[in-house]
Amino acid sequence: MSEQMKKTDFWAGCIIGAMTVVASLLFVMFGSVLLGAGGDGMNNFSLNSKMGAINRIIDRYYDEYDENLDSIPMEEGVYKGMVASLGDPYSAYYTKQELDRLNDSVKGEFHGIGVSISANEVEGTFTVVGFTDESAAEKVGVMEGDVFYEVDGVPVQNMDLDTLVGKVRGASGTSVHIVFLRDGKEIPFDIERKSVKANTVSSNMLENDIGYIDISAFEAVTVEQFKSAARSLQDRGMKGLIIDLRGNPGGTFDSAVKISDYILPAGKIVYVRDKAGKEKNYNSDAEQRLDMPIAVLVNGRTASAAEILSGAIKENNVGVLVGTKTYGKGIVQNIFPLSDGSAVKLTSQKYYTPSGNNIQGKGIMPDYEIEFDNDLYLEKNEDNQLDKALEIVSNALNIN
After folding, report:
1. Does the annotation mark 91 as catalytic?
2. Which whole number is the average pLDDT over 4-11?
3. Which of 12, 171, 184, 373 has its CA 20 to 30 A from that of 268?
4. Domain 201-333+347-396 belongs in CATH node 3.90.226.10
């Protein structure tokens, strides 16, 4: 159980190479908008005039200026700055290449080095917290706790997470040079990128025929992986279920809804409301449900899509939450593709639990609040939160 429980010690947020990221605690939904020829801010005369003036100053005075410098990167920086000026950590501008990588991450298929990272927004650092199966990084000697320092000679401290991901990923068979900090020392590695499919679900059978399913993130591949794990446990005689969402940073809105639909009876899963007040409901049908006692493990790093599933299970009274209050991300990002292949991701909706609660900045309180006993885990490899969930489900099954 130790490998599954490591997640309680880390913010397994974003995944490079195999674990999806949702990397910034994202919900991904798609809309469309075209990059027009007029009538928008991009073609404002005064804006273009100022940009032109700055460009001329750079051309004339910047000491490192290269006459062959491509203007496109500079333009992309302007677009990124425009969206960054909103001050929203979840909104961003994506180049075509960055959007392609994001789409790959949503699908759960990557070309990268096979590491999971934790992003510290306060310190501006990125730390390795786990590896995928057959991780290229782990094979060459990268270790958990290593901190990203440079990628191909570029310092990464305070870098945008999406930018870091873009620099680490690339075509299979190509290499990336990464310098990590380990105990204050710089450790360089040349790592060959490989194609990896994310495994976001793990499972096993615990005592009293109680199944255990760990969901590390919500990606497109997660839905079928969860269903497959549940069916396998049912074939083995599962009578109750524990779902572990501790440290789950979220992912795609759609996967959270589909897994909720698989678990719940007919009823409301979640609803969203946009800037204009328009609402859309997402409901579960009666075709499939897991009719058994259910406990869900949560903590302060259970976020976004993971909170949709947690809230739906709790407020439909089909299971209980065990652990500590969840993160509290009750907003949704939509991606708006532009006609040149780039895109803008904006926070454009709020989501509400079945009873009408928006959890942004508030989180969800568990039915059984219990802090994780790290000393107990380190000394005896015992998980007091999991033990409590086992007790609750066993009692529901009248097993003493």
Report:
1. no
2. 41
3. 12
4. yes
